[in-house]
Amino acid sequence: ERNPYYQYFCGYSNYMPGMPCNATELVHFRKRIGVEGFNLIFKMSVALHGKQAQESSVLIDTTVQEKNITYPTDAKLAIKIINRLNKLAKRHGIKQRRTYVKEVKNCRLSIRHFHHVKKRAKAKNGCIPRKYKIKSGKEEGFLKCSI
Fold first, then answer.
1. Would you state the pLDDT for residue 27?
2. pLDDT at 132 over 70
3. Which of 141, 136, 144, 129 is nearest to 81 (CA)?
4. How far apart (Å, rounded) are the C-alpha atoms in residues 5 and 12?
5. Cα atoms in the Cβ-side hemisphere of radius 13 Å centred on 74
6. How far is 123 from 120, CA to CA, in rounded Å?
7. Distance between CA atoms of 81 and 74, rounded to whole angstroms?
8. Do residues 86 and 79 lie in contact, with contact meaning Cβ atoms separated by under 8 Å?
9. Could you give phi then psi for residue 145, rounded to 5 degrees?
10. Structure confidence at residue 144 as a pLDDT band (50, 70, 90)
11. What is the pTM of this model?
């Protein structure tokens, strides 16, 4: 926007003092076309550029682009442990005393609401990570004894 050299590098023939479009328009466009639309546009650009598109290395700045990353919190890891232990028990035909399926479902819902200010207290009451660590440990111990 500010530097005319960047604009020239990006392919603009004339200097534009403002942004070419609003940033939210790009976000809405990306959400509307989805992954399939993005792949279609990518295939078309590769077809248009031919061998020039087949570079061995490409530099892309993705600092602003949304990332599909979730961070491993204690509660999420405990939920994963409980779910995997349930699958293991089912696969080996072990009958469990408790599977904690309903508790895991409630914990997932409360984790989702952790970030909302008005629902933070409800979320903390619904899913305490220490409680789920204990539950996953109990289930693991029971399965060790059963096997």
1. 84
2. no
3. 136
4. 10
5. 9
6. 5
7. 11
8. no
9. -65, -35
10. confident
11. 0.45
- pLDDT tens, position by position, 59-72: 776 666 666 777 77
Q: How far apart are the first and last CA of the chain?
A: 65
Contacts of 129 (CB under 8 A, 6+ apart): 73, 74, 75, 78
Residue with tokens 């699958």: 87
pLDDT digits (tens, 9 = 90+) for 77-109: 888 888 888 898 899 898 888 888 888 888 787
Tokens of 123: 């979320």
Q: Considering Cα of 100, then 146, then 137, then 97, what sign does the dihedral take?
A: positive
DSSP the chain: ---HHHHHHTT-SS--SS-SS-HHHHHHHHHHHHHHHHHHHHHHHHHHHGGGG--S------SSS--------HHHHHHHHHHHHHHHHHHHTPPPS---HHHHHHHHHHHHTTTSGGGHHHHHHH--HHHHHHHHHHHHHHHHHH-
CA-based nearest residue to 75, from 142, 138, 131: 131
Mean pLDDT estimate for the chain: 77
- What is the reported pLDDT for 1? 52
